[in-house]
Write a structure and sequence with these properties.
The chain crosses the membrane at residues 7-32, 57-77, 89-111, 123-145, 157-181, 215-239. The chain contains 8 helices and 2 strands. By secondary structure, the protein is mainly α. It has one domain (4-238). A two-stranded antiparallel ribbon has the order 1-2. Helix 3 runs antiparallel to helix 4.
């Protein structure tokens, strides 16, 4: 009989995303604040992982999260593909797996290229992570409502919709707030470093809106993957290995 990986094993994928995500956020924030690398009130998440030693923890945990996101995206795709569904749903599923893989790639870029060293690559990774992460969530929410009777209850679909909307709105306010804050920072600032934005610096309220939105967006995306726990409990993966011997 081919080796089989059952739901109680596969469920570790969303569980570990839900564990490593908060651990990374809290640990890096705490160390960065204690080291005086960032301001205490809602710094950007990337800023809390920009300098060692917190950058080492940030990179390691985010790389692991990127791997589990990639694994979760593929598992979810195979789960949906195993059902008899309309062509339109299968197309959305195909789009979602592409978006999910790009989001995982973005997370890896953010992990390995800090905003204190390679800014453009880091920002490119962040754009991939958040933009395609949100697209993935929206696609999966659409799919969830159409396969609800097969897998999960209606409240999970509603929860996924709420998390998707929170992430999407947060991304918009994050970008708008960041642009306004940066413009006003350039006009007037007292703090020597943009990583230690203070109340006396220009654009401080807009900066807080932007950073708070980034935290909300990140938590919403992490929470979204956690909602796959009941789905993966009903999933089994069979591994078929074949050995070919040359004559």
């Amino acid at each position: 009989m081919p080796p089989t990986c059952h739901g109680y094993c596969l469920v570790l994928v969303p569980v570990l995303i839900g564990v490593f995500g908060p651990v990374m956020l809290v640990t890096c924030y705490t160390i960065a604040v204690l080291h005086g690398d960032v301001s205490k009130l809602f710094p950007y998440i990337s800023d809390t992982g920009g300098d060692p030693p917190e950058s080492c923890i940030f990179g390691q945990l985010l790389n692991m999260i990127a791997f589990f996101v990639f694994a979760g995206v593929l598992l979810r795709y195979k789960q949906v593909s195993s059902m008899i569904l309309p062509l339109s749903i299968n197309r959305v599923s195909g789009l979602s797996v592409l978006a999910g893989c790009l989001a995982a790639l973005g997370a890896s870029l953010v992990a390995n290229f800090q905003d204190t060293t390679v800014v453009m690559v880091h920002y490119t990774g962040a754009l991939l992570l958040f933009l395609f992460g949100i697209i993935y969530c929206l696609c999966q929410t659409y799919i969830s409502y159409h396969i609800n009777v097969h897998i999960n209850r209606k409240w999970i679909c509603h929860l996924r919709m709420v998390l998707s909307v929170i992430a999407a709105v947060s991304m918009i306010t994050c970008i708008i707030g960041s642009n306004i804050a940066e413009k006003r920072w350039n006009e007037h600032h007292v703090s020597p470093s943009i990583f230690k934005w203070g109340p006396k610096d220009g654009g401080y309220p807009a900066h807080l809106v932007s950073t708070f939105s980034e935290w909300a967006m990140s938590i919403a995306l992490i929470g979204y993957f956690v909602t796959f726990i009941p789905d993966f409990l009903n999933l089994s993966v069979i591994l078929e290995l074949q050995f070919f011997q040359s004559v």
